Protein backbone atom coordinates (compact mmCIF):
# COMPACT_ATOMS: atom_id res chain seq x y z
CA UNK A 1 0.00 0.00 0.00
CA UNK A 2 1.33 3.40 -1.01
CA UNK A 3 0.92 6.12 1.63
CA UNK A 4 0.21 9.74 0.65
CA UNK A 5 1.91 12.67 2.39
CA UNK A 6 1.64 16.40 1.75
CA UNK A 7 3.83 19.42 2.32
CA UNK A 8 3.33 23.14 1.89
CA UNK A 9 3.90 24.12 -1.74
CA UNK A 10 6.60 26.60 -0.65
CA UNK A 11 8.79 23.62 0.23
CA UNK A 12 9.03 22.84 -3.50
CA UNK A 13 8.31 26.22 -5.13
CA UNK A 14 11.85 27.09 -6.23
CA UNK A 15 12.61 23.60 -7.52
CA UNK A 16 9.21 23.27 -9.21
CA UNK A 17 9.45 26.68 -10.91
CA UNK A 18 12.97 25.95 -12.14
CA UNK A 19 12.06 22.47 -13.39
CA UNK A 20 8.96 23.79 -15.12
CA UNK A 21 10.93 26.43 -17.06
CA UNK A 22 13.57 23.84 -17.98
CA UNK A 23 11.02 21.26 -19.14
CA UNK A 24 8.92 23.85 -20.96
CA UNK A 25 11.97 24.80 -22.99
CA UNK A 26 12.69 21.13 -23.81
CA UNK A 27 9.08 20.46 -24.80
CA UNK A 28 8.80 23.62 -26.92
CA UNK A 29 11.97 22.60 -28.77
CA UNK A 30 10.25 19.44 -30.05
CA UNK A 31 6.66 20.75 -30.08
CA UNK A 32 6.89 24.47 -30.92
CA UNK A 33 3.11 24.87 -31.30
CA UNK A 34 2.29 23.31 -27.93
CA UNK A 35 0.73 25.28 -25.11
CA UNK A 36 2.79 24.21 -22.09
CA UNK A 37 1.15 24.92 -18.73
CA UNK A 38 2.32 24.53 -15.13
CA UNK A 39 -0.64 22.83 -13.44
CA UNK A 40 -1.17 20.94 -10.20
CA UNK A 41 -0.66 22.05 -6.63
CA UNK A 42 2.87 23.40 -7.12
CA UNK A 43 1.28 26.02 -9.41
CA UNK A 44 -1.07 27.20 -6.65
CA UNK A 45 0.37 29.35 -3.85
CA UNK A 46 -0.43 28.32 -0.28
CA UNK A 47 -1.62 24.87 -1.25
CA UNK A 48 -0.57 21.48 0.00
CA UNK A 49 1.29 19.28 -2.48
CA UNK A 50 2.59 15.73 -2.75
CA UNK A 51 5.79 17.34 -4.00
CA UNK A 52 5.61 16.58 -7.70
CA UNK A 53 5.45 18.90 -10.71
CA UNK A 54 2.56 18.55 -13.14
CA UNK A 55 2.75 19.96 -16.64
CA UNK A 56 -0.07 20.00 -19.17
CA UNK A 57 0.94 20.02 -22.82
CA UNK A 58 -1.98 21.16 -24.97
CA UNK A 59 -1.82 20.34 -28.66
CA UNK A 60 -4.09 20.63 -31.70
CA UNK A 61 -5.76 17.36 -32.82
CA UNK A 62 -3.68 17.04 -36.01
CA UNK A 63 -0.47 17.16 -33.96
CA UNK A 64 -1.41 14.62 -31.30
CA UNK A 65 0.30 11.52 -32.71
CA UNK A 66 3.47 13.48 -33.43
CA UNK A 67 3.36 14.85 -29.88
CA UNK A 68 2.96 11.34 -28.41
CA UNK A 69 6.00 10.20 -30.38
CA UNK A 70 8.09 13.24 -29.41
CA UNK A 71 7.24 13.04 -25.70
CA UNK A 72 7.83 9.27 -25.69
CA UNK A 73 11.45 9.98 -26.57
CA UNK A 74 11.79 12.36 -23.61
CA UNK A 75 9.72 10.72 -20.86
CA UNK A 76 8.50 7.34 -19.69
CA UNK A 77 4.84 6.53 -20.24
CA UNK A 78 2.74 6.68 -17.09
CA UNK A 79 1.50 3.10 -17.23
CA UNK A 80 -1.02 3.69 -14.45
CA UNK A 81 -2.90 6.27 -16.51
CA UNK A 82 -5.48 5.88 -19.25
CA UNK A 83 -4.59 6.31 -22.92
CA UNK A 84 -7.04 7.74 -25.44
CA UNK A 85 -6.96 9.41 -28.84
CA UNK A 86 -6.73 12.78 -27.07
CA UNK A 87 -4.84 12.06 -23.82
CA UNK A 88 -1.54 10.48 -22.79
CA UNK A 89 0.40 10.73 -19.55
CA UNK A 90 4.16 10.62 -19.12
CA UNK A 91 6.48 10.84 -16.15
CA UNK A 92 10.05 11.24 -15.01
CA UNK A 93 10.64 10.08 -11.44
CA UNK A 94 14.35 11.01 -11.61
CA UNK A 95 13.79 14.78 -11.57
CA UNK A 96 13.58 16.88 -8.42
CA UNK A 97 10.69 17.19 -7.89
CA UNK A 98 9.30 14.17 -9.77
CA UNK A 99 7.57 15.13 -13.01
CA UNK A 100 4.19 14.28 -14.52
CA UNK A 101 3.26 15.33 -18.06
CA UNK A 102 -0.35 15.29 -19.26
CA UNK A 103 -0.64 15.57 -23.04
CA UNK A 104 -4.11 16.69 -24.11
CA UNK A 105 -5.79 17.74 -27.31
CA UNK A 106 -7.12 21.29 -27.00
CA UNK A 107 -10.88 21.34 -26.22
CA UNK A 108 -10.98 17.56 -25.73
CA UNK A 109 -12.55 15.65 -22.86
CA UNK A 110 -9.30 15.74 -20.82
CA UNK A 111 -8.34 19.37 -21.52
CA UNK A 112 -9.20 20.46 -17.98
CA UNK A 113 -6.01 20.56 -15.91
CA UNK A 114 -5.42 24.26 -16.61
CA UNK A 115 -9.04 24.97 -15.70
CA UNK A 116 -8.67 23.29 -12.29
CA UNK A 117 -5.56 25.40 -11.68
CA UNK A 118 -7.28 28.63 -12.70
CA UNK A 119 -10.36 27.99 -10.54
CA UNK A 120 -8.21 27.10 -7.50
CA UNK A 121 -6.01 30.17 -8.09
CA UNK A 122 -8.91 32.58 -8.32
CA UNK A 123 -11.21 31.10 -5.65
CA UNK A 124 -9.40 30.53 -2.39
CA UNK A 125 -12.40 28.82 -0.78
CA UNK A 126 -12.05 25.98 -3.31
CA UNK A 127 -8.31 25.73 -2.67
CA UNK A 128 -8.99 25.55 1.06
CA UNK A 129 -11.61 22.84 0.51
CA UNK A 130 -9.11 20.85 -1.57
CA UNK A 131 -6.43 21.28 1.12
CA UNK A 132 -8.89 20.06 3.77
CA UNK A 133 -9.42 16.94 1.69
CA UNK A 134 -5.66 16.43 1.53
CA UNK A 135 -5.32 16.83 5.30
CA UNK A 136 -8.02 14.20 5.77
CA UNK A 137 -5.96 11.69 3.74
CA UNK A 138 -2.51 12.56 5.12
CA UNK A 139 -0.68 9.32 5.90
CA UNK A 140 -3.43 7.17 4.41
CA UNK A 141 -3.73 4.94 1.36
CA UNK A 142 -2.90 6.74 -1.91
CA UNK A 143 -5.70 4.96 -3.77
CA UNK A 144 -8.29 6.19 -1.28
CA UNK A 145 -6.93 9.72 -1.65
CA UNK A 146 -7.01 9.48 -5.46
CA UNK A 147 -10.67 8.47 -5.40
CA UNK A 148 -11.54 11.33 -3.04
CA UNK A 149 -9.53 13.71 -5.25
CA UNK A 150 -11.42 12.51 -8.33
CA UNK A 151 -14.72 13.07 -6.52
CA UNK A 152 -13.61 16.59 -5.56
CA UNK A 153 -12.65 17.47 -9.13
CA UNK A 154 -15.90 16.05 -10.51
CA UNK A 155 -17.70 18.32 -8.05
CA UNK A 156 -15.49 21.29 -9.01
CA UNK A 157 -16.32 20.78 -12.68
CA UNK A 158 -19.97 21.48 -11.83
CA UNK A 159 -19.28 24.85 -10.21
CA UNK A 160 -20.18 28.05 -12.09
CA UNK A 161 -16.55 29.19 -11.89
CA UNK A 162 -15.36 26.08 -13.75
CA UNK A 163 -18.14 25.98 -16.32
CA UNK A 164 -17.47 29.62 -17.28
CA UNK A 165 -13.96 28.71 -18.48
From TrEMBL:
Annotated Gene3D superfamilies: Beta Polymerase, domain 2 (3.30.460.10)
One Pfam family named in its UniProt record: GrpB
Name of protein: GrpB family protein
